[in-house]
Design a protein that fits this description.
This protein is mainly alpha-helical and 160 residues long. The chain is 67% helix and 0% strand. The C terminus is likely disordered.
């Protein structure tokens, strides 16, 4: 997202909600640019960015302070994401069985479970790629032949 999108969307929306003029806000242009940069480089998600902007608006704190205080850094460690994906798949054998029988829309359900488990902090692109890889591997096998856990350990060191 570009700074202009944030100004025309989120910042002006907050100004309107609070009946304030642009001169009355506590956020400097540099602080807004730093927030947008954190979103652009994947440190935080866009939805977390909106939460941060709202708090910056209220408190005048910097984006970095708020991100640290609230633990909003995006989870982009592939090994951690693989652990969560593996756990979610292993803990939901009924949904996995239905998925493997052809109901591929359950990929979205698994995606939602992983995002819920990580409290929305996991990088959505990495979650989706990891899920597609894990479920794709399992889709070529009979359920009883292999668990997600054993396939995950075989992938250690592979790039997605």
């Amino acid at each position: 997202m570009k700074i202009s999108n944030w100004l025309s969307g989120s910042v002006f929306s907050l100004l309107n909600e609070r009946n304030l003029s642009i001169d009355e806000i506590k956020i400097t242009p540099d602080e807004l640019a730093q927030l947008v940069a954190k979103i652009e480089n994947g440190e935080i998600s866009a939805s977390s960015g909106k939460v941060v902007l709202d708090e910056m608006f209220e408190s005048g704190k910097s984006a970095s302070e708020i991100i640290d205080e609230r633990g909003l850094l995006q989870l982009s460690d592939l090994k951690e994401i693989e652990k969560v994906v593996t756990r979610v798949v292993d803990e939901n054998p009924q949904q996995l069985e239905i998925y493997l029988k052809g109901k591929e829309t359950l990929l979205e359900w698994f995606f939602g479970q992983v995002m819920r488990e990580t409290q929305g902090r996991a990088d959505p692109k990495l979650v989706r790629k990891t899920l597609e890889l894990v479920l794709g591997e399992l889709n070529g096998q009979t359920l009883g032949q292999s668990s997600c856990r054993s396939k995950s350990s075989q992938r250690d060191g592979e790039d997605l």
